[in-house]
């Protein structure tokens, strides 16, 4: 927790100036701009000076001190170029434009360099070889492709004494372009001019070979160079490595880079060495040519080198990474240069952004209109345990950006990412939201968003900071009417900030910066139903009374009136509030040894007829024996010798106590502001037993207000009391208690969760919601139950619920329930649900709507059963819709399965001719698992005719196995005592040589022998039960086989 002094220091340090505490007045007074000036920086010194000497002096001083200057400083120097400028100064301008401008891209440096060159040419400045070398090398280093022929002619026409370095720059340009013919002609020209070939020209030749993809040729040139006594220097390798970067050749780059490292290890005096500056140059080339793999390799190398003296170089790289979208690399580069500044004693897992480079970086993003990248950097920096809001908000609060929505949105995004929040982040926004100059730009919704953010903080507002910075504008904005603010916070459940605002306003009243009557606005939002809050509020009232003069009767009277008005306003919610106030005031005044105030309070209680205690002894203990005996007698509720409610309760025999006695004791305890929980539980149990709903919920409210935990069994009894059993007629007396039922649901949901309510009560609750016309709540209750615990009991009550309420449910509501089952695998219970669902849906809508729902459901779950839809549409003669369902099901399940199901559905419905056409489809082969499934379904319904027809119609299907059909038909025929059918089946089995289970065959042989007929002469399946001596009966065995076959077919 911040101390009072450190809070203000931190505000000023973070949002005004880096190290000045004495400028708090500037910060406090400029509420419209939130903060004072920007951070002091050398770049801010740039202005349009009228004296060219001052301009050039500023450029020279800045470049010599840092080797980096701002673009404004270079631009100003270019504008002041005249014909008297010295050679040294003109070279400095070219060098600064080419290499020394920070915070800009290579394209911007090339632009400045060309402007400087143009200005020098227009002013007729004598340009020497060094000028051309500086200019062309600057273009080359910034990745600019220039016309080498043009500058060669210009050098000749101006009679410039060209140096090998200048020739190498032109040759390098030819080689970078891949113009080998022009490079060869250029070499021939150099030979004719007797120009000595140095390492720069060799490097250009090696680059030419690499451009052509001739790695061996490049190595040969390096070898020739060594044979002539010229060792490759850092300049040589820079050209070669730059060419490899431009060609995106990682392997060759690693080879030559390894050569440099090897050469550096072999000799300490090597001219080819790798340092941080050299790596930064190569990194810039990687950015120019968008070569990410080599960039990552060099960045890892840079981390191991001494980079402590080049923060501006690293910052430039980070800015250039943004243009390529290499945001992670930009963060790494900025992190590298700030690692040295991190204090050793930082214990937080999140690293604060130390140094000013982060702030400059985010300012650069805003100035370049790239604020859309801020969210990206928030995400990436949080992944690295950085605290990006430090830099982002510093930029927003110290710049000319007036849009308060930007920091507000970034704070909200930071909260989503669980960014550590500081209270100081919010003070500038609070100042803007209430400042007379800027408050009109804020909407109430935006203030609400700000308060939502503050609500999450441990200390939303610090009292000293509030009184120094916010208090005056806060009071001025609300004009002593704080109810809208408090109501907004209460409605949005921002309890933390609501409590803090209430306490700050009470502090202002105590300090007499607000009138006393404001307390009445605060009281309804101070949660005075809690004893702890009542005591806190009483201490505030005591401080107001104690702060006045002993003879100040007006102040005391004002407090008394305030207590009366607050108690009256809250009498419905807290009927004993007035009693509690005076009780706490008496106790506090006695503890503080304010005897006069204690006597005045006691007299007021007598005047108001407020009884404070059960007995005189209790009052003496409360007031420290300072009150006269006659006063104590008047304050006591019970006369001497009369039992108090506590004594009655302690002597009570619970087994013999009747309801009237308990209610009397409870009323006496409420007068003392006490709510014995055991007595409340007993009364609640009796009211539930008597089915007194109104009294039960009245005492339930009192139990909740006293913050007691209620057992789940009591809740279940209350639910049972106010709901109706499934299938019973709705009791009008219970239907009138809709609000009580909603209150009960809220309590149970907070304590145990509605999903944990017993299944029967859950559906009774949904049934009551539907009866009361709240279908959405009913469906939500059912949805929560199904998603949390879908078992057989849930299926049972859901089916019962649908059967009872199908006429009340709308089609949309029914579809919402159906959608809950789209994610479940199909089993017998789910199949029964879908059958009932489609029955109800067809009654409530049209056949076309049912088909449309089935089509949509199949996209979510291809296993939604369609067999019942066949039966529905066949029975309704909806042949077009039947064809639609067949088409949809065929896409998911294949034509063989669907045609079998359709044929058997037609058989079951008695449509034999249509079924015959289905099974006579030329290409249709038997699908025996579907045949077995339908034979079992027919057997379950004792549909013998369907089984006989199925045997006849499927007989000619290729690869058909009718064993299960015959087995099921025999079983049903025996069950129905159709011996003639059994005889016919035996003839069919004998004639078509149907293979049967050994048990079935033995049973049929016994049946035939009983009629004097020959046994069946057919093959049987091998069965391990064939040799068993004691065979089980056919009925039991057939039933077992049937169940096994059914399960395997459905799975």
From TrEMBL:
InterPro entries: LRP130 (IPR033490), PPR_rpt (IPR002885), TPR-like_helical_dom_sf (IPR011990). One of its GO terms (biological process) is regulation of mitochondrial translation. It comes from the Eukaryota. PPR repeats lie at residues 163-197. GO terms for cellular component: mitochondrion; nucleus. One of its GO terms (molecular function) is mRNA 3'-UTR binding. This is Uncharacterized protein.
